[in-house]
Specification:
The complex is a heterodimer of chains A (293) and B (437).
Chain A lengths: L10 H28 L2 E3 L6 E3 L3 H7 L2 H33 L5 H9 L6 H12 L5 H8 L10 H30 L2 H9 L4 H31 L1 H7 L11 H11 L3 H26 L6
Antiparallel strand pairs in A: 1-2
Chain B lengths: L1 H22 L2 E7 L3 H17 L3 E7 L3 H14 L5 E5 L3 H6 L4 E2 L1 H8 L10 H4 L12 E6 L1 E6 H6 L11 H13 L4 E5 L2 H12 L6 H4 L13 H15 L12 H6 L3 E7 L3 H7 L4 E4 L16 E8 L4 H14 L2 H11 L6 H9 L2 H4 L5 H7 L15 H16 L5 H23 L1
Parallel strand pairs in B: 1-2, 1-3, 7-8
Antiparallel strand pairs in B: 3-10, 4-10, 5-10, 6-8, 6-9
The chains are: A mainly alpha (293), B alpha/beta (437).
């Protein structure tokens, strides 16, 4: 069944893959190599002198309880962001798919938040929950609930999850909606005629047929939660209080660019690189098997 | 013929460039962290300098907050694209000092440029921060402030208190907070810059070490020591007030200033430089008091500064360094300093500026504005009150803030939190020592 094309000679295929190889080298292999190399050194901030320390940067990191806690924070944060934004995205897509009138308007409005950059989304939510001037914190107070995310770790976590998921719901909505619309109506109608309820149809037809998209979104959302939520965390909590919202990527930034400890920052990047590698292998090896294309 | 043309053209070209380089002013770059009102005042200083002579032009650029400016400067230095002058806040001082070769020391810069410059003209509590142990001044003090107690007199009256009551000790402050709480005042006490006010200045004020080796002045092998019984007592008191709802935590930096200016907070510890904003926004009668201390201990020592100094970065031409020297000498002039002091609430960093301000009657017209200066200079500076010189200190402050949040939320006792902050901070100090030996 598969089509295979064979080239004669080697220079044409080499030429054709060269741009991709070049890009991979410049934007992936070279920086990764630099990170691995730098993780073995302890430089001073100005780059005036540097000392080879072997694996000391890694030893230093792994003996830091706050670094280990940051793994747990990252897992909680990424899971919460991915699951909540995907579940809500799917829910809204299922509703919008059944619309008969004004579907375009609803869809546009639901996609809107995706156009907002993470850092700006962070500032918007921060305004609403600001202890001085925030509307949300004002009403919560009126209800007798004291809101102070600068001091309470669980509230801070909730707020960064909320702000990170918000724009993401739109993205997931868009893909789920496309997925739903690609399911042939005839299958659903056939099931309906056979007497399957909405939930039965949803569970046995729609969900399995959506699985390629769900898998794609799972990968993309976890990558998002790992790397792109930086702006939200930086604007809302700066990783606090007591590092309760410091995810791994944020720690790379704060140790490297706030504290100027480039050795430790590079070591963290290397650990992160390995971690994401393992995660991707797991996703493709175990989860992808359950996906029906 | 062809050759001749080429020769004429190159001579003409050469003459053109030679001409411009004779006429052009030397331009130097200054990176700083000031926006808003402070940014306007800074711009005014630069314009004044540019207009005062025709040899040099200073171009200033805002690079974000203090930390961002420092980081931008360091990154630019690594790339060889750094400015002539970099504003560095007091916390970054040790990092620069340790980076020998990254800057031209102030005394050297002035000597090479033939500028007359008198380091003795600076208030010692300020210049000491930026001077080596053998008396060499490395950077130029720019803006310096010190923490004071701000009082909302209207709320004091509402709490049934005399707004002029004695608030010199933390015990008296505690009594005032009890009264305010009893009268249901929402926010009896708040504070900005937790570590700076309640540990760093607290140590100097009570003449106890914040860190060994003269707070780091005498060597990189310094260790933190802010977990003494007196420190613990104070942080525990703050934790207790937080639990009882007398002290509201608003954030690590100067977030609480908003609550004070809005008239919600009765007593606030904040930098003397909060003056510009409070004077502009407060719709109530406010007062300025000395930072409280613990009675029973000795009379208070002096407080220390926060703020920034200007560093001349290395790797610039002789001409540009001359321009830098001329500009920095201009900034330390008495009338420039006196105006800056009066406009902003920052300290007058030269003794002459402080004197001039006094003789102009400014302190009489604006009561309380002289307290910060008095508080800094009332005693001879000791080893414990000269300032702090600790590497990775921005990060250590972050650790202290984290641990103090644990105390305020009631999760940790002051003892546990401060012990942990000292332990974690020492790890960073050792790492800094290793990277800079």
């Amino acid at each position: 069944m598969e089509k295979r094309v064979f080239f004669k000679g080697w220079w044409l295929p080499a030429l054709l893959v060269a741009p991709q190889l070049l890009i991979s080298f410049v934007f992936f292999f070279y920086p990764s190599g630099q990170a691995i190399w730098n993780s073995l050194f302890l430089p001073d901030p100005f780059g005036l002198k540097t000392e080879f320390v072997g694996l000391d940067n890694f030893r230093f990191l792994l003996s830091d309880p706050y670094y280990l806690a940051s793994f747990k924070t990252t897992v909680i944060f990424s899971t919460a962001v991915s699951v909540s934004s995907m579940a809500l995205g799917l829910y809204l897509a299922a509703l919008a798919d059944r619309l008969i009138k004004g579907a375009g308007v609803y869809q546009t409005l639901l996609i809107w938040p995706y156009a907002i950059a993470p850092a700006i989304a962070g500032v918007l939510w921060l305004f609403m929950f600001n202890g001085n001037i925030g509307l949300a914190s004002y009403y919560l107070k009126a209800l007798g609930y004291e809101w102070n995310h600068t001091l309470k770790g669980d509230q801070a976590m909730f707020l960064v999850i909320l702000a990170s998921s918000w724009g993401r719901i739109s993205y997931n909505f868009l893909f789920f909606l496309a997925g739903l619309q690609a399911i042939p109506k005839s299958i659903i109608e056939a099931a309906a005629i056979d007497g399957a309820s909405f939930w039965k149809r949803f569970g046995t037809i729609v969900i399995p047929l959506l699985s390629p998209i769900t898998f794609f979104l799972l990968v993309v959302n976890i990558v998002y939660a790992f790397f792109d939520t930086f702006g939200v965390i930086h604007t809302i909590t700066s990783g606090g209080p007591e590092q309760s919202t410091t995810i791994l990527v944020y720690k790379v930034f704060s140790d490297g660019f706030v504290s100027q400890d480039l050795g430790s920052s590079a070591a963290q990047s290397v650990i992160l690189l390995v971690l994401v590698g393992i995660l991707t292998v797991i996703q493709f090896k175990y989860i992808e098997r359950k996906v029906h294309y | 013929m062809k050759h001749l043309k080429a020769i004429i053209a190159s001579i003409a070209l050469f003459a053109m460039f030679a001409g411009t380089s004779l006429q052009a002013k030397v331009e130097i770059q200054w990176w700083h962290a000031f926006g808003g009102r402070l940014g306007e005042l800074l711009d005014e200083q630069v314009n004044k300098f540019n207009a005062s002579q025709n040899k040099y032009t200073v171009v200033h650029t805002r690079k974000g907050n203090y930390s961002e400016t420092l980081n931008a400067g360091i990154a630019a230095f690594r790339a060889g694209q750094h400015p002539n002058i970099l504003m560095v806040f007091e916390v970054g001082t040790a990092s620069l000092m340790a980076a020998k070769g990254a800057y031209v020391p102030m005394y050297q810069l002035m000597k090479d440029a033939g500028q007359s410059f008198n380091p003795k003209g600076f208030v010692s509590a300020v210049s000491g921060y930026y001077t080596t142990t053998d008396g060499k001044m490395l950077s130029m003090p720019y803006n310096s402030s010190t923490p004071v107690l701000w009082v909302n007199k209207d709320l004091m009256k509402k709490a049934g208190l005399d707004p002029e009551m004695d608030l010199s000790t933390w015990k008296r402050v505690g009594n005032a907070l009890d009264a305010a709480k009893a009268k249901n005042i929402e926010m009896p006490f708040c504070t900005c810059w937790h570590s700076w006010v309640h540990l760093e200045n607290f140590s100097a004020y009570h003449n106890i070490p914040f860190a060994t080796k003269a707070n780091g002045f005498a060597g990189l092998d310094t260790e933190l020591s802010f977990n003494s019984p007196v420190h613990i007592k104070h942080i525990q008191t703050l934790g207790k007030w937080a639990q009882e709802g007398k002290f509201k935590y608003m954030g690590r930096r100067n977030e609480a200033g908003k609550n004070f200016r809005a008239g919600e907070c009765m007593l606030m510890t904040e930098s003397s430089a909060g003056y510009a904003g409070i004077k502009k926004e407060a719709k109530f009668e406010f007062g300025i008091r000395h930072l409280p201390y613990y009675g029973g201990t000795e009379a208070p020592q002096n407080t220390i500064i926060g703020g920034s100094s200007l560093w001349a970065l290395s790797g610039k031409s002789k001409e540009e360094n001359k321009a830098t020297a001329a500009f920095l000498a201009f900034l330390s002039k008495t009338d420039i300093q006196a105006k800056w002091h009066q406009d902003t609430g920052y300290l007058g960093v030269t003794t002459a500026a402080a004197k001039k301000t006094k003789s102009s009657g400014f302190y009489k017209a604006n009561p309380g504005t002289d307290l910060a200066g008095i508080q800094m200079m009332r005693n001879k500076v000791t080893q414990n009150s000269k300032g702090l010189r600790l590497g990775s200190f921005d990060q250590i402050r972050g650790i202290i803030d984290e641990e103090m949040e644990g105390v305020y939320s009631g999760k940790k006792t002051a003892q546990v939190a401060l012990d942990s902050a000292v332990r974690r901070g020492n790890v960073l100090l050792r790492r800094f020592e290793r990277a800079n030996k």
